[in-house]
Design a protein that fits this description.
heterotetramer, A: about 100 residues, about 0% strand, flat, B: about 450 residues, alpha/beta, Rossmann fold, 3 domains, binds NADP nicotinamide-adenine-dinucleotide phosphate
């Protein structure tokens, strides 16, 4: 197996994901546009993955550690509050009689 | 090698879960399942990352995550629903800051090993540019929404030129750092210019246009995340960034369409001026007004009522009273529906969230295209704090600033009742001919107080 | 740039394309299900790409050349006839007054 | 290296074009643009491949392509529209054969250089298995549709066991070739067993069920294409295969749903027996019948007529006559609509293509869910060669073999007219209570002749 991916691999992934995002979002009911915004915002907090790597590498410089720490903190706040608040909003949507 | 496989499998699974999450957001029945998916996806992505063999020191990361959770949880539960637009803005600022900071750290680590002009360098610079400009832009948007800053557009002479110069400077620094090896001395400059550009982008835009700006910033944040994925060779980040980017973009397009504004109008800033220029001109034609006492029996005797909420309901936090009114009317045998305009309020889906919070069943909320054909058969159209979204000028007057914007045709109902505090204009700053129609009755007052009174009168009938 | 892609890259591409296919096909109007079948069939003829490589490599054995030749032939027939016939079908769909 | 980049860019562009092609198939207004995209995509993919530096001898390839085009073009123009299902089947057979043959060539080339049990070997074996079984399975499907072979299910004692053994043998050979290096001597055996398995898979299925089988084979062919992409490290093939695979799968699911059959029923073969078992029992209750002469005035005087075509219209090739009938009625001021059941005929969208061929505008074709609410207000439901798709037993009789299948509720119309040749049953082989209703009139005769007569009578009125 080859480590790392070629640029064209990454471009394929990006193109497919963009088309997919387009199809998925178009179908979201306008009823849910507010929770959608807060969900995508929360999902984007997955950049925490990059922040973790930067912070905890063996050869991380103090600067990298500081920046990484802040990034992990910011991303975690987003992920946690974003997901919880989306759920809180969605919990309120009820059909008649539910 | 084996753990690498597990890590990649975790990323693959997390991507799949995020896709399912968005797929299930298509309907309120499955949306909560979608959030579950997103939660599991995030956990799997983090767990996979912690397994990587280049990840060795856990302490700092764990402290940051615990701290983050300790801040995030109360934030989520204490946030009032009316503050959602602000919260989204500040959260974009945090997210974009994280992306930018990671970019800096990566640059110091990787740049010396990369060939000048190579693809990862391009990706890194794009990541930092988008990250930092989104960060300050979101902060300004937050400040305007929270009214910490003046909400009117801030303009000065030569603004376009300044913007252009700043943007040019950012590109120049980026170019230097991409093509000249060991030019890390320019990095602080580059960051400063990117931050400044974010500020300049948003200050000339009026506060009321912030929702569109926020959707667009969501899209930029997504692109920044994808750029980071390209730089770090991480497909999960690319997928999430692309999903996020398209989502923000599509929401911005939807908002523009519903306001009949061109999209470039948003992209190149400078709007909201229209609203600032045309000042709300109340004219002297007579209007009919009614008290709650007079209005209650009319509502009670109607066989169908369509309630049309707008920004005023949100400002007055009147949603719970409106829900009570709805229940009372339903109990007296009146058929009640809510007509929801796509840009009623100040963010997409604003009315839906507020009414859902007040326990109005969502199958009572009808979209514009579906309610308009029913308007002529409707006895009473009860407008609560909406204005532009029911302005017949958009349909009838080709010279109106909102000409062509789709509206809810409240004027076609047999009786129109309007709850608002005065004759002043709405967001677009223009007069509304509906107030002067023969079949229109104004119920002057704060939306919350007035609905409260209506409910009381109905109880006494 | 690294030549060739790792297996996980390919899996990412497959997963995204499958989700995308699902979203796209669900939206196809039932009116067009017949042309859809013949279009996807025609698109699949892009396997001709693999067939060309097999046939025309410098070190291709006679067996590989024979098999490749047949494969190119079969795939080309599919592509050409499939695309033309789909278009022929679609040309017939008209709105009132068109 | 540079040409490699161009090749990859070509593949990326081709993938994007194929995706756009499917996206634009969503509506008849954009569908032809979609086909253009697919054409350009194919050309770009081929051009890109010819640029590759490992591609050196062009002569054979060009001869094969010219020959292929010379066969393909006349095929496309001479094929009658009624033969579309057969064409799709034979075309799958060709495509799958190509995949299988490429698999063999690759195996001889690559296998010795691959580690036993490595991923590309798995992909290669899957490619060949799916390719060859799809090839023979499609051939059998073709033969059944073309009625070269008996269309009834072919069954024999111990069939399941035989199928299982053959499948087991295929897996065993595949396993040997994956884990034992230099075991290419098993390849011919493996191919033979895969081909045999394809035959066994389809012979127990009745001819009328072939459309579902064809959609499923479409899906298998797509998976084979993806497997080839995995083996050859080619992302274009993976994308196309995945799109194709999901397309076939979803169409098969749609067909199953519209017939209220379980999907596993299809996946594990052996259906069509139900239909074979229950023989069409015409009973002795009286039916009312009418001549074309009597029917014409009724149609002429109706204010709304819904035409419900079915398999009989396809067999009789009556679509052009039906279109004439539609035009005459419209001219006399009758409102005419066509009600299209999702599985009317013998393949998805069958009726739509035939009626489009006869120039019926597609906005006159209404789907099941939309037409049913209108049926009670319809004066005449004119059924032309449809049977199961309008059988009220599906709705009323929980013990019927088609219980639960959604139907077009023709029986709710004020008058029902049925054009068919006899009282015999349709595809499901069961009796239809609609023929015995008080408001039903049978117009016995061939669909083409009978509509011709109706048109003549209308002209004479
Ligand atoms: N939703 C979005 O995503 C979005 C995004 C960007 C822009 N916009 C814009 O926002 C506007 C939304 O239209 P809209 O019809 O909802 O609202 P609007 O046109 O902004 O009008 C709101 C009305 O509510 C009244 N109001 C304010 N406070 C009130 C209170 N406490 N009690 C009672 N009434 C009160 C105001 O009149 P008084 O002052 O006389 O009471 C005002 O006329 C559109 O122009 C849209 O283009 C929306
Ligand atoms: N569309 C698909 O994708 C698909 C796929 C798989 C299975 N199927 C099955 O196919 C069936 C389709 O239903 P359907 O209502 O369209 O048809 P059907 O139930 O198969 O009935 C067709 C009727 O047409 C009559 N007919 C045959 N030849 C005729 C001619 N020349 N002139 C006039 N009438 C003629 C036959 O009666 P006479 O012999 O008395 O004339 C028969 O009753 C469903 O059961 C469905 O499940 C469809």
């Amino acid at each position: 197996m080859i480590e790392g991916s070629s640029t064209t691999d990454l471009l394929f992934v990006f193109m497919l994901a963009a088309f997919l995002g387009f199809q998925l979002i178009k179908r979201v009911s306008p009823l849910l546009h507010s929770p959608l915004m807060s969900l995508t915002n929360a999902i984007a907090a997955v950049v925490v993955v990059g922040a973790i790597i930067i912070t905890s590498e063996g050869d991380a410089t103090p600067l990298a550690k500081t920046l990484g720490f802040l990034a992990v903190l910011a991303a975690t706040i987003n992920a946690v509050s974003g997901l919880l608040i989306t759920d809180r909003m969605l919990k309120m949507f009820r059909r008649k009689g539910e | 090698m084996d753990t690498e496989l597990i890590v990649q499998a975790a990323y693959l699974a997390a991507s799949g879960l995020f896709i399912l999450a968005l797929m299930w957001m298509s309907s309120p029945k499955t949306a909560r399942r979608g959030v579950r998916c997103a939660e599991v996806g995030t956990v799997i992505a983090i767990a996979g990352t912690l397994l990587r063999h280049d990840v060795v020191g856990y302490d700092l990361v764990l402290i940051a995550m615990l701290l983050g959770a300790a801040i995030g949880v109360p934030m989520a539960y204490l946030m009032p629903m009316t503050a959602i637009p602000q919260r989204t803005a500040i959260s974009h600022a945090f997210g974009a800051l994280a992306v930018g900071l990671i970019g800096i750290a990566e640059y110091y680590k990787l740049a010396s090993g990369l060939a000048p002009g190579s693809f990862p360098l391009w990706a890194l610079m794009l990541e930092m540019l988008l990250g930092f400009l989104t960060c300050t832009a979101s902060l300004i948007a937050f400040a305007k929404l929270q009214e910490i800053m003046p909400t009117r557009p801030i303009m000065f002479a030569g603004q376009r030129l300044v913007n252009l110069l700043v943007f040019g400077a950012a590109l120049a620094f980026a170019g230097l750092m991409i093509f000249l090896p060991n030019s890390s001395q320019y990095l602080p400059w580059f960051v400063a210019v990117a931050l400044l550009f974010g500020v300049l982008l948003v200050i000339p835009i009026g506060g009321a246009d912030m929702p569109t700006v926020i959707a667009l910033l969501n899209s930029y944040a997504g692109l920044a995340c994808s750029a980071m994925g390209f730089a770090l060779n991480n497909k999960l980040l690319i997928v999430v960034g692309a999903l996020d980017g398209t989502s923000g973009f599509i929401l911005a397009v939807i908002m523009c369409k519903a306001m009949n504004r061109s999209f470039s109008n948003v992209l190149f800033g400078g709007f909201g001026q229209v609203a600032a220029a045309a000042s709300g001109g109340a004219d002297d034609r007579p209007v009919r007004s009614m008290s709650a006492e007079e209005a209650a029996p009319v509502l009670e005797l109607a066989s169908s009522v369509v309630i049309i909420p707008g920004y005023g309901m949100a400002v007055a936090q009147a949603q719970h009273r409106v829900a009570e009114l709805y229940e009372h009317l339903e109990e007296s045998g009146v058929e009640v529906k809510f007509a929801i305009h796509p840009v009623a309020g100040r963010m997409p889906g604003h009315m839906n969230v507020l009414l859902a919070e007040a326990d109005v069943p969502y199958d009572k909320l009808v979209e514009l295209e579906d309610i308009n054909p029913e308007m002529p058969q409707t006895d009473v159209a009860l407008i609560i704090g909406a204005n532009d979204t029911i302005n017949p000028a958009a349909r009838d007057d080709p010279n109106s600033v909102i000409a062509g914007m789709p509206i809810i045709e409240a004027d076609k109902a047999k009786t129109v009742m309007v709850i608002k505090r005065s004759m002043s204009a709405g967001f677009a700053g223009i007069d509304n001919p509906i107030y002067y129609l023969d079949n229109t009755q104004m119920l002057f007052g704060d939306a919350k107080k007035m609905t409260e009174q209506l409910v009381k009168e109905l109880q006494e009938l």
